[in-house]
Amino acid sequence: MKILIGDDHLLFREGLRRLLEQLQGDSTFVEAGTFNEVLDQCRTGETYDIVLMDLHMPNWPGFDGLREIQALQPGVPIVVISASEALGDIRGALDHGATGYIPKSSSVKVMMGALNLVFSGGIYVPPGALTASMDAAPRRRSPLDVADRNSGYGLTQRQREVLECLRLGKSNKQIAYELGLSEGTVKIHVTAIFKSLGVKNRTQAVIAAAAMSA
Predict the structure, then answer these.
(1) Short-list 154, 165, 147, 164, CA closest to 192
(2) What pTM, to 2 d.p., does this model score?
């Protein structure tokens, strides 16, 4: 596995690399101290398995910078590891394509669990952001709010199973195989889940799924 670490603090990069070595001992690491250096590393022709980076490092252009990295490394997961726990930063990163957001204040145990989830294809969102995100979301079904919360937001048992698979980062093909469904049926369930939760994509659905299980 080839991992790109972008952070302007050398000590943190070294600590993160040592932590990653415990999880992915055979990995190769490339480090960058500014956003421009991250871009330069992404332009070398090398393809990374994952990019781990901070926000607001030198040359940081805003959240559109995540789109720039995605354009240079198509399909490569980008995980933000930041000192900021502001909901705006978390939502901004996820809305611009980040596949996870890990606060630097996390304990070693939490960070290792979060990284393991990401490496297995899941999406990690800070627990503290889940409730705030759901509370801030528009209420499309407010008259039945309490009943919906108690019954899984109106989802059927099968839809809740599909939603759990989404939370684990599984593709429609994997979900179909595990649940004994056709891919077409899975797509129908996913569309119904998005509509019931009032979300537009899988990342937002994952946030909702985590809030439901909290």
Answers:
(1) 154
(2) 0.67
